[in-house]
């Protein structure tokens, strides 16, 4: 049985049913807004706009966000059903989408740091098919990691008190994203005026900052409470509910960030979404090569 499903058993008695209903309702509303927004991103980057190595990463992130929002909506709806709907396939894919999104966001942050710090290598020596290969490997690793984490009690990881995928993302993804965000912040806000004009870098910086604001406090709370000796099982449902709420909000707000950064403030006529996305994802926005 998937480890995630265990969060829906007797542990739910330790958490207010009323609070669970409120959070699930808010989460469902966010999902209803996030699905069409990410669908637009997938349609534009997948079929309307010429792809480049960076938009391949953003497209895969949008697919991951879209899938996560779907399964988060299913989970939210299940909280209104008595007994709650439980399927190991749904919750397995739910975790895969979440983990793959974290990995993709980590790679995107590293990609922009490399573009800023080594612009000549990035545009002249970067392997042509690096982005598709990296995305394929990240999806494969996400499926394997969640599969191993879901069955760790039957494997060599039986001594691990938390889900393995939570540990990997907290130890690997969060520090890398934080460091990358600091580097981009210094480059954009404290260094060159030329960098400041780059819409692509501004968009990525805002995306990373929103992710950290929504994610770091939650993981910090989890580690502090566990360090103080709080029972993990009593926290699992609470953490899962708030993590899903923050993740859905983050996944839904990304397309809004792309739109707001890409549009022209003084545009006379109404611009199409395609034009806005083409502007924000232009590769010549990378600093240091103009």
UniProtKB/TrEMBL annotation:
It is a multi-pass membrane protein. It is found in: Membrane. Residues 37-258 form the G-protein coupled receptors family 1 profile domain. The chain crosses the membrane at residues 22-45, 57-77, 89-108, 129-146, 166-188, 200-228, 240-261. One of its GO terms (molecular function) is G protein-coupled receptor activity. The keyword RNA-binding does not apply. Its main location: membrane. It comes from the Eukaryota. Keywords: G-protein coupled receptor, Membrane, Receptor, Transducer, Transmembrane, Transmembrane helix. Pfam families: 7tm_1. The keyword Transmembrane applies. InterPro entries: GPCR_Rhodpsn (IPR000276), GPCR_Rhodpsn_7TM (IPR017452), MRGPCRFAMILY (IPR026234). One of its GO terms (cellular component) is plasma membrane. Belongs to the G-protein coupled receptor 1 family. This is Mas-related G-protein coupled receptor member H-like.
């Amino acid at each position: 049985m998937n480890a995630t499903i265990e969060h829906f058993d007797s542990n739910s008695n330790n958490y207010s049913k009323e609070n669970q209903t409120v959070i699930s309702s808010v989460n469902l509303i966010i999902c209803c807004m996030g699905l069409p927004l990410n669908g637009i991103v997938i349609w534009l980057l997948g079929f309307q706009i010429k792809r480049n190595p960076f938009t391949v990463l953003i497209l895969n992130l949008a697919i991951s966000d879209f899938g996560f929002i779907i399964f988060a909506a299913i989970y939210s709806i299940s909280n209104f059903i008595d007994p709650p709907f439980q399927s190991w396939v749904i919750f397995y894919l739910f975790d895969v989408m979440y983990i793959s999104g974290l990995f993709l966001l980590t790679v995107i942050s590293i990609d922009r740091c490399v573009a800023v710090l080594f612009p000549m290598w990035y545009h002249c020596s970067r392997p042509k098919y690096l982005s598709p290969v990296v995305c394929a490997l990240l999806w494969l690793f996400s499926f394997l990691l969640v599969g191993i984490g879901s069955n760790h009690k039957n494997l060599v990881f039986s001594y691990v008190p938390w889900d393995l995928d939570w540990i990997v993302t907290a130890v690997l993804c969060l520090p890398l994203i934080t460091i990358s965000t600091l580097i981009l912040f210094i480059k954009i806000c404290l260094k060159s005026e030329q960098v400041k004009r780059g819409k692509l870098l501004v968009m990525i910086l805002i995306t990373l900052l929103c992710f950290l604001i929504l994610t770091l406090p939650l993981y910090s709370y989890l580690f502090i409470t566990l360090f103080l000796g709080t029972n993990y099982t009593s926290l699992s449902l609470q953490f899962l509910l708030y993590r899903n709420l923050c993740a859905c909000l983050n996944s839904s707000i990304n397309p809004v960030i792309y739109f707001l950064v890409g549009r022209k403030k003084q545009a006379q006529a109404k611009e199409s979404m395609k034009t806005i996305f083409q502007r924000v994802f232009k590769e010549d926005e990378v600093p240091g090569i103009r």
